[in-house]
């Protein structure tokens, strides 16, 4: 599904955290959002996924206007996400965490659930199988029975991805999936994301690891202080002077000029 | 017309007491993030202690002072023994702790004193004064003056003294306050002590009008909540406004609707505020950071 | 499917049923049956709190109000000609309806705000029950004439004393209630509820309608409380407005947290301790409140997840 963002924004206490940002993300590719700290990247995700209401602009999925939809209906429209500051469920096992992702595919009647009827148990069994497949794909199969609170930071990042995958989403928003990961883990997450995209899903990625971003992105959008300052292929972004200035400051930009020049 | 004036007078009188309780809540909540369900018990400690001392012949000013000190001590003990050891506890634990503390204090009041209703004479006598067609008890003036004094004291203390600014810093951002060298533990302890002292003072002043007994604290606390919610959690100005408004609403309900349900007014207000405007009149809007 | 093992719900029912039987075997007199009945009734109402607080994480300080609605409907409606059983159902239905209506606005709140709002709700219910003496008998309460458990057992040819009969009824209801709650916990709805407990925003991102789920938990817990209230009214033959008061609401939450709010076994342990304790504490008479308050404070400081998880943790650490 195509995700089209046009002119969305929000202010907090007079400060425009995100201001008039727009871009498009297409199926089968990875679109990355980068920018210095505080640029508004996570806030942008919160706007797109319905956590915050946007003050203006539109969000469209395959042309359909979904701007005013609450978060849980956006999920039903095919959007899933992970969170920068990890929103896993520490009191559940890793498997149960991922099973919650099957919620939208479960036919759940409250009465059947209370009575423990076979129909309810069948849904649980189906979700269990789907969850275990996703855990396996994320390399977490042996940790299925452990309480999520016992997993390492990197494992939890992958757990969130597994949970998002199992929803059957067409659009996946990943917020810093490789943060706190070492080189090996980053590579693994890398490959996982590239594989997810190649399956035909639309992947939007926030990342700080530039090598990863350059390697797997089809398009990159650069934010600074809430506004989009550049958009293009990795090659174009790498050489864009405004991007360099935003990251390194004017002085650093001059140095980079001198180094390349 | 004079009937309305009478309701306004009794409303402001009892409202001043609620305002003092609400102020105590607000101070503790700001400094520690804890909603102190035992706040009403400080009022009872003040009233019961004063009643016992005055009954035993202690001169009123001394009895009042000792009663306030007793309340303050209770506040310090509450912080040291119940709150401080449980600081990182989840919400429901903190609720049970302060409610458990209030039950404990109530039991102690019952044991130390008795289950009777108590009062003592007003500080300036009990002869009602005429005022515009209505009457006002001299003690009501004491109560109102006391409340004003408390608010004034707190405003001065929080803004002009080092300890007070320490409390404000702790309330604003505990970690940052600790990092700049403020003893946040002492600040929180102090906030409990002051809140308890304020509550006890309210009890001392109010007893000639409202009477006191070992179990009067629960309803007091609940009405103090209502005042805090109405005024806006975390706002001292809100505590004042909320308290007075609850007092007025209660008095007019008792007068014009039904005196049976006057206590219900506070709870209807709680629900109305939380449904319509949870941040109250002067409170800050709450947003969640993801 | 991997074998035909007993599901968690059935297993819970059997364990509870076994405990009911064991209790009865140990009881030397009617007095114990009465206390036992109270323990099971409290277990039932606290199981509802486990669903609301343990599964979803919502604190209600007003659930005694629903308890009282169940109790008073059972007491009042037969006086207007309704059969006892129908009155009970009406009380339960009324509590559920109130929970549904009031739940929507109240459950938008969280944390202390929710606790205080539910407190206000409970207090209003209590006030109506206390003041409308013409209907409810006022603060002194009213007698309850209704179904007799003895008659139930006579139907199957058993002749039991009233106290015994009610013990079995209460125990049976508590066991059933526990089994339903455990089934819920292991089901799709249960996972949705537990997700909300840990992260409201993540739950939404997974398509969970959080408002609807919270409402369901609120209604379910109200039903548990109302059933327990109805049982108490019939078993005691008398009720007072205090069954709907703030202290009772506090007791319900404390029982849950004392035992361990996330499991029905916690509900049982908490109900057992706090129901049996006052009976023991009558020895201490005057100090009852002080002891109760001290227990509440100390338990939260030392064992904040409750007795059952604390003991389970100790057991787990014993193994080499």
Brief write-up:
The complex is a heterotrimer of chains A (261), B (290) and C (320). Chain A is of the alpha/beta class. Chain A is 41% helix and 23% strand.
Explain how this protein is built.
The complex is a heterotrimer of chains A (261), B (290) and C (320). Chain A has helices spanning 41-48, 71-76, 94-100, 110-115, 118-137, 153-165, 183-198, 210-216, 234-238, 241-260, and strands at 3-12, 15-25, 30-34, 56-61, 64-65, 79-81, 171-175, 202-206, 219-224, 227-232. By secondary structure, chain A is of the alpha/beta class. Chain A has a 6-stranded mixed sheet, sandwiched between helices. A 4-stranded antiparallel sheet of chain A has the order 2-1-4-5. Chain B has a two-stranded antiparallel ribbon. In chain B, helix 10 crosses helix 11. Chain C has 320 residues and is an all-alpha fold. Helix content of chain C is 75%, strand content 1%. Chain C has a two-stranded antiparallel sheet with strand order 1-2. In chain C, helix 2 (30-56) runs antiparallel to helix 11, helix 3 (64-76) packs parallel to helix 5 and helix 3 (64-76) crosses helix 11 (210-236). The longest helix of chain C is centred in the first third of the chain and has 27 residues, at 30-56. The radius of gyration of chain C is 19 Å and the shape is globular. Chains in contact: A-B, A-C, B-C. At the A-B interface, loops of A face loops of B.
Q: How far from one another are the termini of chain A? A: 41 Å
- Described by the principal axes of the CA atoms, the overall outline of chain A is globular
Question: What gyration radius of chain B follows from the Cα positions, in whole Å?
Answer: 19 Å
Portion in strands of chain B: under 5%
Main sheet specs of chain A:
6 strands, mixed
Share of β-strand residues of chain A: 15-25%
Span of the ends, CA to CA of chain B: 54 Å
Number of strands of chain A: 10
Name the helicity range of chain B. Answer: over 70%
Key features of this structure:
heterotrimer, A: 261 residues, alpha/beta, six-stranded mixed sheet, four-stranded antiparallel sheet, 10 helices, 10 strands, 41% helix, globular, B: 290 residues, mainly alpha, two-stranded antiparallel ribbon, 11 helices
